[in-house]
User: What shape does this take?
Amino acid sequence: MTVLEAQNLTKTYAIGDRQIPVLGDVSFSVSAGEFLVVAGASGSGKTTLLTLLSGLDRPTAGSVWIEGTDITHLSEDELAPFRNETMGFVFQSFHLVPSLNALENVMFPAELRKDPDAPKKAASLMERVGLSDRRDNFPHQLSGGEKQRVALCRALINDPRIIFADEPTGNLDSENSAAILKLMLDLREERGATLVMVTHSPEIAATADRTITLTDGRITGEQRHAA
Amino acid sequence: MPHSRFIFRQLTRSGNQAAVFVLCVTLSIVTLVAVNGFGDSISRSLLRDARTLHSGDIILHAHTPLSRPLLDAAADLERSGKAQTVRIYEFYSVVRSGMGDDSLLADIKIAGPAYPFYGRVTLASGRDFQSVLTPGAAVVERPLLDRMGLSVGDPLKVGEATLTIRDVVVHEPDRPVSFLSFGPRVFVAMSDLDKLDLLKRGSRVRHYLLLKTPEGTDLERMADRLRSVAVPGQERVETYRTARSRIKGFFDNFLFFLALIGIFTLLLSGIGIQSALTALLKEKERTIAAVKAMGGTGRFVIGHYIAVVGILGAIGTVLGLVLGFALQWAMPTLFGGLLPDDLPLTLSFRAMLEGLVLGVMAVALFAFLPLHRLREIKPGAVFRKESAGRRRGLPFYLAAAALFLFFTAMVLWQLEDPRIGIWFVLGISGLILLTALAAAAILAGLRRLPLRALAPRQALRGLFRPGNATRATIVTLGAALAVLFSIFLVEKNLDAAFVRSYPADAPNLFFIDIQPDQTAGVSELLGTAPRYYPVIRSRLLSVNDEKIDRERERKRRRDNLARTFNLTYRDYLLDDESMLEGNSLFRDDIDGLQVSVLDTVVDMRPMAIGDRLEFNIQGVPVTAAVSSIRTRTKESIKPFFYFVFPEDSLLKHAPQSIFTAVRVPKDKIGETQNRIADRFPNITAIDVTQAIADFADIVHRLSVVVRFFTLFSLLAGVLIIVSSVLATRFARTQEAVYFKVLGAKSRFVLTVFTLENLIIGLISAALALAISQTGAWIISVRVLDIAYRPYPGASLLMGAATVLLVVAVGLSASLSILKQRPVIFLREQTEE
Ligand SMILES: Nc1ncnc2c1ncn2[C@@H]1O[C@H](COP(=O)(O)OP(=O)(O)O)[C@@H](O)[C@H]1O
Ligand SMILES: [Mg+2]
Assistant: This one.
């Protein structure tokens, strides 16, 4: 079953009167529970693709379908429930809300949907990632690895069906990177969620179901890995 | 070597905070230039020449006819060529039109031919004053003609005489503004004095004798000599240097008040300058760190930012000067009717320069701290996201101390009495301290508040987001509004006290200077027999043998024991009086003369039943024992007397005039006034409605001026809000984007931001209201001596307006983010 589909996605940036094509005619689909890695050189358009897939940006042409809904032209408010319940995000630079402590950051998406179990769920996720003693710390009091673990919990609290991760370990040292990735993959596994991850790491790519490679905004390679 | 491209780039990229900074500088300069220029215009055109303001070198003044010895001494001086003299009489009297069909209370001035010694009386015709003011002539102010429908050439009845209006007076050197007196001026020649027949015994006439001395005269010695023959406590001998002028006193007070508002505005715009600059430089922190990382020295960075700030400051200053200039032209409109039409509100370069220097000093002082902090930025900040915590080192305290001293010096410099200045400085410091403490307490309380609902909890969290200046914003906003609200509340209460004192059934026509044998005639003309109050003018000499210290008493701002009191005699209590001490007005157990005093007197000096008061009743010392203390139950315009003697006492035989007050239908006032004035020209009828309307009009105009200048501090307050919103815009945008990415709808984001601003607005407004209510209450009750009303409706309205303003400004900065896709912001955040 297809949960996510890109149809002829094109993105051009206008700088002055020059049109800079960043993504050209990208189409593919992702099935439920799949782990997809997006690879490619820096500047090849991976982040752009991810933001289009997740509705954080609008394509110049083409469309994005999530679980059978065309989200391309939805308004920000119409996208809100998708962002809240259907997807989870993990960014390279964490993007934690600075005025909230770790636990509150994790709870936030659950609280938005008025989940009465938000504190309980958050606490157990924090425990799962080994951050129980850091729950009252604010983002500026956390290390990079800790921040990313909080971000991971936050992305998972509403049990999203699709998780988007853009170089989640890009800002971390190798030790932390490995730990985070392991956590992420384990948690995905447990929940059976779909994962779309941008990464440079061939080892991770090897564990994925499929890798697509971007070169200058076009898909130049697609590789399936045996499970 | 300055790097001009760097400076240029920083200037063009500075954006909104730079605009706020420039506007704050502009505001400081405009305020200082406007207030200074206005004050200077007034002083130069109205007050500068004290000799002109008193029209003589030495001024002899009394409310009773000048005594023989004093007149003789003056005459001696004149005979020996040591001085020229001129006599002047001033009093209010009702003048009538030639037909006797219209009448008006006028401020009569009868001056000898040598008047004025200094300055010039300007007539509408341009002719020479003394050549026009011949026997039988009257020279009047324009409003008299307008109100009575007369023109030059028409007859005018003054007292028993019928004069002819010969000209219109445009400017009078010793009365440069007319709004401090009731009724228009009428000049009458000295030779007509007797014909008027108005100088009855006991009438309220101001008697003057002015002396003009040759250059080089020792005025003090001459004044001392005259003083030695004057009747103490009754006749005043002053030189033009020491004489107090009501007009000067009034403008000194008024200008001082404006200066304080100006200083307050300067303080607020200074805070705006500081916060805008801090935010501006914070935005540049990365650039600065990068420059430092590339090897730029701290001096390079600071030097260049000083250049940037200097250029922005210069733009603000020039803008301020231009607007200040423009304002000077608007002044006459603003002051319409308060100042003489021919008042030259010229631009004084001294005042402009003064404003400029002070403004630039203030800007420099306020800009110092943010600039100084640039030195603390480490090259490493390029790599770190959070900026280093602000340490408050020695420079902070030094700058704070310098600012405090600067403002204290400014306040002290504005006035002669340093005590008021110290009070003001202490008051403002106390105000800010109080606001800061209250804000801190409230915020600390809020921080602990356990909230279940997400949006309000998030809003509360927003207040404490790192780097937020929530408390500083609340303190400046609260303090600024507290001052504005206080001014408003005091004004409202003054207004109300005024209205209250004039209820619908209050008398509206007062008759003064009725002679004892005229009461029957007056009753007949009025058609009723009103209550007549005998009035005996007198001074208090001592209390329990302790002499009244006249100099000290006169220094008191409010009523004092040194002035002339009106005594009366009667055996009954008035309707609006009640006993405070003693059971009846007078007692059987006191031998000799008794007197009942009003509690107002006791407020000036504590007194008890049995205390001995010594009066000087027109030259005769009289001692009486306090028999009771009365109080008034209503503040109203009804007549009241501080000292009441028994009906059957020696007062009955003292020289006296009689006073009465009646209520006449409005349309009958003029007619009644005419009838009385026709038959008894010596009786002065005061149309209280008119007098009150005139006074209310003046109060209103003054408050327009005050409001105009307080508007500047309001603007500064708004700029502070804008600056603080801009300073947190990045943080708010970031939060809005994160909320959206996590699935929040725009309504949630809006709710959070609205609530956040609402909390800031509510705390500021609540603090401002609490402080202003307390302040206005103290000012009303303690200083102005009027009953206080809190005006809850208007207060809530002001509070609501504040909250609305804060919410609106706050939201306007974050609205644009709601409809945008989050990616734009996220990208900026990721690129590092
Ligand atoms: N707002 C923008 N305007 C212009 N060009 C952009 C913008 N955002 C990204 N790009 C360009 O698009 C290309 C792809 O960027 P990105 O998707 O971030 O690549 P990747 O994540 O693979 O490194 C880059 O060349 C980048 O410079
Ligand atoms: Mg990228």
Summary: The pocket of adenosine-5'-diphosphate (ligand 1) is lined by residues A 13, 15, 20, 22, 40, 42-48; B 827 (CB under 6 Å). DSSP finds seven helices and ten strands in chain A. Chain A has a mean pLDDT of 91. The first helix of chain A runs from residue 46 to 53.
